[in-house]
């Protein structure tokens, strides 16, 4: 049975959603402007809102827009099947790395470009453009990042961060049915009143945590999910506590768990091709955790 939020044109949003999401005057963000860590990779690449606004800023200047389009093309290249790497790689070189092209990216040195051309002829790999990507990010993290920090786009980012830092409580959400149960509590569907967006709320009961000496484990889970940014690991959207529980608000996965699909959908088990696909997804998630120096049990 699908999970649905409130009906009507608001799609589950509170009547006061505009008031809840109202941006502060930029003068209220001055303390945040002074204290926020000016780290290019964190503010402009890892954080979705920061990434979106930095890209909007880059669209105002052709040379920066070319850099962003190059990075996007390389991201597409890196997820292609091996047999298509050569063709896509040559397309990227011709479009972005040849002087005289309308969207030429000058930040990639011609020595690097020559090495890429040679590898494309012999054995193209997914990491082929990594040195060029590094050069482009180094360029963007310099003067362009400084100019972005003084722009209206960064002002908007600060307003979003101010909103993000407002206290989260159980009243931020509507609670719906239980989706499952675990060792420390249950997982239920919930909906953010301000946006109408659905999530899964993992409630860790304090009594159970204390009884089983799981305090460090609960904190560890929160801290790991805070820093991991992966398509293959659920995202931590919010965290708050009530009198009785610690609550982690996570990406909701509506399709059912692996056990359900193995035993309750058609004949028990999976065909080999489907099993390989799921195994690959799990490995991608583990790889992203390993990049953050995290080993899963």
UniProtKB/TrEMBL annotation:
Q: Where does this polypeptide localize?
A: Membrane
What is the protein's major site of localization?
membrane
Q: Which InterPro entries does this chain map to?
A: GPCR_kinase, Kinase-like_dom_sf, Prot_kinase_dom, Protein_kinase_ATP_BS, RGS, RGS_sf, RGS_subdomain_2
For this protein, the record's SUPFAM superfamilies field holds: Protein kinase-like (PK-like), Regulator of G-protein signaling, RGS
Entry keyword Nucleotide-binding: yes
Q: Which reactions are catalysed by this chain?
A: [G-protein-coupled receptor] + ATP = [G-protein-coupled receptor]-phosphate + ADP + H(+)
Domain annotation Protein kinase: ranges: 173-297
Describe the family membership recorded for this protein in Swiss-Prot or TrEMBL: Belongs to the protein kinase superfamily. AGC Ser/Thr protein kinase family. GPRK subfamily.
Q: Which domain of life is it from?
A: Eukaryota
State where ATP binds: 211
Would you tell me the protein name for this molecule? G protein-coupled receptor kinase
Using the record's annotation, list all stretches that form the RGS domain.
46-158
């Amino acid at each position: 049975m699908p999970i649905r939020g409130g009906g009507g044109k608001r799609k589950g949003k509170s009547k006061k959603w505009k008031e809840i999401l109202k941006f502060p005057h930029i003068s209220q963000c001055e303390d945040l402007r002074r204290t926020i860590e000016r780290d290019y990779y964190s503010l402009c690449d890892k954080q979705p809102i920061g990434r979106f606004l930095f890209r909007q800023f880059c669209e105002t200047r052709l040379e920066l827009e070319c850099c962003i389009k190059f990075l996007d093309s390389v991201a597409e290249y890196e997820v292609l099947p091996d047999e298509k790497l050569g063709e896509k790689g040559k397309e990227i070189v011709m479009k972005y790395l040849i002087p005289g092209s309308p969207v030429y990216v000058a930040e990639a040195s011609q020595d690097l470009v020559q090495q890429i051309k040679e590898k494309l002829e012999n054995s193209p790999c997914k990491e082929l453009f990594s040195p060029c990507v590094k050069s482009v990010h180094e360029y963007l993290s310099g003067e362009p990042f400084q100019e972005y920090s003084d722009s209206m786009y960064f002002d908007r980012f600060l307003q979003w961060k101010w909103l993000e830092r407002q206290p989260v409580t159980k009243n931020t959400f509507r609670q719906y049915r239980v989706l499952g149960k675990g060792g420390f509590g249950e997982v239920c569907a919930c909906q953010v009143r301000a946006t109408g967006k659905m999530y899964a709320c993992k409630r860790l009961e304090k009594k159970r945590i204390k009884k089983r000496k799981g305090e460090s484990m609960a904190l560890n889970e929160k801290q790991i999910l805070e820093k991991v940014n992966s398509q293959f690991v659920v995202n931590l959207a919010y965290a708050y506590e009530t009198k009785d529980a610690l609550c982690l608000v996570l990406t909701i996965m509506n399709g059912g768990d692996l056990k359900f699909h193995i035993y309750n959908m058609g004949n028990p088990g999976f065909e080999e091709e489907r099993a390989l696909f799921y195994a690959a997804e799990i490995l991608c998630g583990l790889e992203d955790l390993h990049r953050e120096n995290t080993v899963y049990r």
